[in-house]
Design goal:
By secondary structure, the protein is of the alpha/beta class. Helix content is 46%, strand content 17%. Strands 1, 2, 3, 4, 5, 6, 7, 8 and 9 form a 9-stranded mixed sheet that branches. Strand 7, helix 9 and strand 8 form a beta-alpha-beta unit. Helix 8 packs parallel to helix 9.
Length: 279
């Protein structure tokens, strides 16, 4: 059975793409076949993350101008340093990128009407089915557009697990609660499992001489997560601290590959274990 996981947020800047790409890499290291899709169609960035300019995009598949083998690219080689044997792992990494050009984004912006969005939803369902049947994937990970735009809802609709990322600020907390009540309850009613993932929690980057004065804030995030769970029933995963060395790196890539012993890599590995073990 292929698990389809959508990573979503109320607003941008919550680290969706970093979490999606690194989670995909970790699953591949575990021997899984994984496809990662950039469905943040209004601000696609995954192609920059992987430093690639593909000949065909997901857009081409959706417009019937490319098949699955042209628009979904095998990126497994990026997970193995030069000279390292790849044959020891059965895992594969496939990636589909959204076209960042102005015309491609405008085309999505101009789409309107119930019939149009139904058609786009059917295309996404077909894309998912083609990935499952042609590429024999264990996981599909979707990086979605933030908020409640039509493309976000369509992307969430094809997933069976929903990860709602958020940060510790009042706007994000209230927006996340709104999403859980107004959007996620419908998906959960039809069998999806939702999780809250609090990202960039303070603590890791705090100088040693002020750590003690910040302990109270570190308890605040637990209270927020418990309140969201009590109010909405959503599960929550272990929070991810703010790692400034990653966030402000001029060339952010796969930390779990480049630095497998980094606290971020270890935390994300635990989060994947939590998510795959929960029902």
């Amino acid at each position: 059975m292929t698990h389809c996981i959508a990573i979503h947020s109320y607003k941008g800047g919550t680290g969706k793409t970093t979490i999606a790409a690194n989670a995909a890499a970790l699953l591949v290291q575990m021997g899984k076949k994984v496809a990662i899709l950039d469905l943040d169609v209004y601000a696609p960035s995954l192609h920059n993350y992987f430093k690639i300019n593909p000949k065909k995009w997901i857009n081409d598949f959706l417009d019937n101008n490319a098949d699955i083998y042209e628009s979904i690219i095998d990126m497994t080689h990026l997970l193995f340093p030069k000279g390292q044997e790849q044959s020891k792992s059965k895992g594969r990494l496939y990636a589909g990128f959204s076209n960042p050009s102005r015309d491609a984004i405008f085309k999505f912006e101009m789409g309107n009407g119930t019939d149009y969005w139904k058609k786009q939803f059917r295309k996404l369902v077909f894309l998912r089915e083609q990935i499952i049947t042609k590429l024999d994937t264990d996981y599909i990970i979707i990086d979605t557009s933030p908020g409640i735009r039509h493309w976000s809802i369509n992307a969430l609709s094809i997933a069976d697990k929903l990860i709602l990322t958020m940060k510790m600020d009042d706007l994000d907390i209230e927006g996340t609660k709104k999403l859980l009540f107004e959007i996620y309850t419908t998906f959960v009613r039809f069998g999806a499992i939702s999780y809250i993932l609090l990202n960039r929690v303070s603590g890791y980057c705090i100088p040693c001489d002020v750590i003690d004065s910040n302990l109270g804030e570190n308890q605040d995030h637990k209270k927020v997560l418990e309140e969201l769970h009590d109010a909405t029933g959503a599960n929550y995963l272990s929070p991810l601290p703010c790692y400034c060395d990653i966030q402000f790196s001029p060339r952010e890539f796969l930390t779990v590959i480049n630095n497998p012993n980094h606290p971020f890599s270890l935390k994300l590995k635990n989060i994947i274990s939590e998510m795959t073990n929960k029902t």
